[in-house]
Design goal:
134 residues; mainly alpha; rod-shaped
């Protein structure tokens, strides 16, 4: 945002120099076209340079030259994140165990229903079993 302000200040400079030059060249079409094109080019390039050159300088700066910042990725926040990660991992393990127990209980209920001894009370089950085996 600081660099956007600097870019806007450079636009004021381009306007301060460009407006009189445009006024001087208004009767000469080729010169007027060149001046207007140059002004548009300067405005666009100044914005791009003031936006991206500082970012590129930070990327290519050596690590020991990097400024110390108190952003959300500080060492204290990383430690807190590691504690939260351990807490979440413990909770995941608890939920996985609960899920295993629930699925084991469900399987035992289903296996009780599917045993042949439970079906022996029904009429014609022997005929059904004979049809399946033959």
């Amino acid at each position: 945002s600081r660099w956007l302000g600097v870019a806007c200040a450079s636009w004021v400079q381009v306007l301060a120099i460009g407006a009189p030059v445009i006024a001087l060249t208004r009767n000469q079409p080729v010169a007027s076209y060149f001046v207007r094109s140059a002004l548009v080019f300067l405005v666009c390039v100044s914005m791009l340079l003031f936006m991206f050159v500082p970012k590129m300088m930070l990327v290519y700066k050596k690590p020991q030259e990097a400024p110390k910042s108190s952003n959300k990725y500080s060492k204290q926040h990383v430690n807190t994140s590691q504690q939260e990660l351990k807490r979440y991992q413990d909770r995941i393990n608890q939920l996985e165990q609960s899920l295993k127990q629930a699925s084991a209980n469900e399987e035992s209920k289903n296996s009780d229903l599917e045993t042949p001894s439970n079906y022996s009370n029904y009429e014609g089950i022997e005929k059904f079993e004979d049809d399946i085996t033959h």
